[in-house]
Amino acid sequence: MSDTQWRLEVDRHTCISSGMCAGVAPDHFELESDGSHALVDVVDQDEAVIDAAESCPVEAIKVFMAGSGELVAPVD
Predict the structure, then answer these.
(1) Where are the transmembrane segments (predicted)?
(2) What is the pLDDT of residues 3-20, one digit of tens each?
């Protein structure tokens, strides 16, 4: 893993199944009956992933640099 890729995390206990992430970044997130999940854990950098994390109403999505673990989104 490197810092040219991002690691995605969805906190299923926090997720309220709004579907915002799947609507904003359908190539990266899917909504199921028990909440949203990332289709893969590590992705190439894609602005749609940032948009999805920042549009989540309960901030259940976190995006980290895959190599360093630095938080990319959401940012306060």
Answers:
(1) none
(2) 689 999 999 999 999 999
